[in-house]
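Fold it.
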Amino acid sequence: MFIDPKLVPEVNISNYPEAFRKLVAGRSKKKLGNFAQLKNFGVNLVTLNPGSWSSVRHWHSQQDEFIYILEGEVTLVTNGVEEILKPGDCAGFPSGEANGHHLINNSDAIVLYLEIGDRTAGDIVNYPDADLVAKEAQGKWLFTHKDNSPYTM
C-alpha cells in the first residue's frame, strides 16, 4: 500500500503523566505504520524541535526499537554515553537490555527520524532517571510510580 506521508496526520500529544509532558512538547509524530494498517510493528516519522526530547530515557522489557536519522543532528543518550547522530546514522535497542536511551535535540535545527518498534503485548517500560514505569495492557499504556502507585493524569 502506497503511503504519502503528507497525508498522514501529525500527532504531538504525549500520553506521559503531566510532570513529563514538557520534556517532549517539541516532538511530533506521523504514525505511518498505523496509517498503513500494520499490526506487528509500528513506524513513526518523528520531528524533534530544538531543545526537545524524544522521550524520557527508557528501555523496554519486551519490545525492540530502532531509529534512523533522516535530517539534522541529534544527541543519543544511553547509559552514561552521549553520541551525536547525523543523517544516515541509526541505532537499535533490543528488548530486555537495561540500556536506557532517548534522543535530545541540542541543535538549532529540526531533526527528522524514523522510529520503528514491534508491538509485543505485555511490555513494561522502565525509566531509570525518573520515578516512572509504563505497562502495556490491551494496547494502552498505564503509568505508575516505581512503587506501583498510579499517576493521576
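The chain has two helices and 13 strands.
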